[in-house]
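anyone seen this seq b4? input:
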Amino acid sequence: MIRPVEILRLISRGQLNRWALRGIHAESRANIGGRVTWMKYTFALIMLFLAVHPASTSYSSVSAPNSPFDTYGDLCFEDEKAHLDNFAIALQQNPNWVGYVVVYAGRQSCLGEAWYRASRAKKWVVNRGVEANRIILRDAGYEENVTTSLQPWPKDKAPFEVLPGFLHRSVVKIFRHCQNRILRPGKCSNR
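predicted toks r here
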């Protein structure tokens, strides 16, 4: 059973819309039986949330995915290039789209590591033939582990919403003197 808090979190991230919630409500009503009243109140709370936050349920004539095109962790750069090549191909096939490179630094990271990784990714994609002004970089804060998300996005749609990392700066260990501005470069396996 999906808890109301989880549903609200999905809505705020734009991963659920009103039609999906109606399906959840109908399924819950069929499966819960005696808890129908509780679900009615939960459903009313969710609909109130949707009324207050209409941006999370807006629709556009241009379809763009709600989930990232590609997300990966701390890879060696040789493996990361494969992800970036696919991203470059997607942008080349959609000339009216921009590409967001969103990087979250890890709990232990180097000073400026997220920005360094994002810039390195942009340089690789530009070398693959995508115009530099079509690549938008975002340092999104801190997650448990280094994470990079690649997202093609239509130029005529509202800017891609980057969710901030869930770790507060006070619990993150930042190293100031790192080789290549990356704390632990991923090692490529012997090929």
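Helices lie at 4-12, 18-32, 36-52, 77-93, 113-127. The mean pLDDT is 76. kinda curious what u guys think
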